[in-house]
Amino acid sequence: MTEIATIQNSFDVYAIREQFPILNREVKGKRLVYFDNAATSQKPQIVIDALSNYYSNHNANIHRGIHTLAEEATAAFEKTRDTAQQFIHAATREQIIFTRGTTEGINLVAYTWGRQNIKAGDEIMISTMEHHSNIVPWQVLCEEKNAILKIIPISDDGELLMDDFERLLSPKTKLVSIVHVSNSLGTVNPVERIIDAAHKVGAVVMVDGAQSTVHLDIDVQKMDCDFFAFSAHKLYGPTGVGVLYGKKDLLESMPVFQGGGEMIKEVTFEKTTFNDLPYKFEAGTPNIADTVAFKSALDFVSRTGKSKIRAHENELLQYATSQLEQIPGLKIIGKAKEKTSLVSFIIDKTHPQDIGILLDNRGIAVRTGHHCTQPLMNRFGIPGTVRASFSLYNTKEEIDELIIGLQKAVKMLA
Amino acid sequence: MEKTIIEKETEIVEEFSLFDSWDDKYEYIIDLGKKLQPLEEQYKKDENRVRGCQSTVWLVADEKDGKIFFKAESDAVIVKGLISLLIRVLSGHTADEIINAKLDFIQKIGMTTHLAQTRSNGLLSMVKQMKNYALAYKIKNSTTV
Asked: What is the pLDDT of residues B56-107, one digit of tens each?
């Protein structure tokens, strides 16, 4: 069944849905409508099966065992590295470092490259629309090093003010760490232009790809970013796995992040020599099972086809936007020209939390609050939004249910 | 004679048993929220904010003749309705009664899921804060005697 669905030429959302068992469940007596995909996506059966298969048939600790299971587990684990490399078009597999997720990837760079290269008076640049994960590590670093955090402002539509960005750039700028797609607004940032401009002043650029990797084609070489981090769980994969990509010379020059097993070459009490890339940054037993299953998620996306997924999601975005705009008092936060499939909004005289509770009561899962982007919410002068984020398995009928749910909620709250 | 906390809880559970659907329950909670006495502006300051809520909740307590009285407000109406229920149950009781209240009614009216969730509607934070006020008054009274 799943094979047929994926070899079909056209995008059949109903066939896709059949591959996601959770979509059949009921919430509060209604069929689940899952619109919290920007927080985490649901998992297709093949990913669930891969996890179960790994534990049922291949489980062993990786890399050092000489027995059959250890070899199988190592091969499966390393295969995911190859698939991830192809997925983001990295030049070599050594540039794919497995992490717990995007947050750990950013922290790894802050703690290693950052501590080695950032000096007093240096400037690190982020934007107003960053997730706390791409704010706090740099704040901590700046405080420690007496460096300065500069913020790229945004427009009322939720787009970066590129002129201001270019004005803020100077030889003092040592790092620009920028979100590729905003988790609160859906804005797709012009990362290539940012990277190009930052490189001209000699700055290194880190791209937070947590939200973008599931929606957009990622080619880290073409993008020319120095670091790129993303998470498996927003990409139909398991939680607790992520990837940090880095340019080879940078990764090689960086000090180690954590010490332990696997990351060493030789240990004596006098001195430890460190392993080569990528193992140098993968201390301890990694999250083997979830990493192995992550490959199935990447394969699922590649087989389905990112351009088809994008087209479907874009249709949902356009439809949802036009339907939502008809609700009196509803204001969409984030109207960038280039967006991924999410809509953040507020409704006059209602609190996002009330809307969220009443939608949940109809089986509709949305996210409400500040979405871990408090400075962004402050920029718009709001405490939070309701965010509906769409995925490849969502349908227009589900959006209709959202609209009905919202109309009803507004009526109840008025 | 004043009703006990348990008696008031039982009353609420009975009221909620009349509703057939969650919609009706929420309609009622929203109605309670809208009717909650607004908090005077002077109390809406940072020190009175309940931490751990997605919405902004202010909670103040006052003591009169050995009994504690609560006043609260929120910018979210369902939260206000839930606070209103908590105030109805806990206001006007002694510190010990409040500290020892089990508040089983929350589960019985089906709001447990909210309690279990971290920071969702902040019900747990509000209960904690109310009990903290009671504890503070208890300590204050025992040291001044």
From this structure: 899 999 999 999 999 999 999 998 999 999 999 999 999 999 999 998 898 8
Q: Is position A40 within any domain?
A: no
Measured between beta carbons, the chain A residues lying within 8 angstroms of B54 are 352-353, 368-369, 384
Nearest to A184 by CA among A368, A311, A363: A368
How many structural domains comprise chain B? 1
Residue numbers of the domain that contains B91: 5-144
Question: Which residues of B fall within a CB distance of 8 Å from A413?
Answer: 30, 77
Interchain contact, B79 vs A353, CB within 8 Å? yes
- B117: pLDDT confidence band, cut at 50, 70 and 90? low
Is pLDDT above 60 for B116? no
Query: Does the residue A38 lie in any domain?
Result: no
- For residue A172, the domain's CATH number is 3.40.640.10
Q: How far away is chain B from the Cα of A412, in angstroms, using its nearest Cα?
A: 7
Judge whether A368 is closer than 8 Å to chain B, CB to CB.
yes
Contact between B57 and B122 under an 8 Å Cβ cutoff? The reply is yes
Which domain, by its residues, includes A60? 50-302
Distance CA A168, CA A142 (A): 17
ipTM, two decimals, is: 0.88
Q: What is the chain A residue with the closest CA to B77?
A: A354
3-state secondary structure of B137: helix
Interface A:B, Cβ pairs < 8 A: 39
Q: Which residues of chain A have pLDDT under 70?
A: 1-9
Categorize the per-residue pLDDT at B143 as very low, low, confident or very high, splitting at 50, 70 and 90: confident
Strand partners of residue A334: none
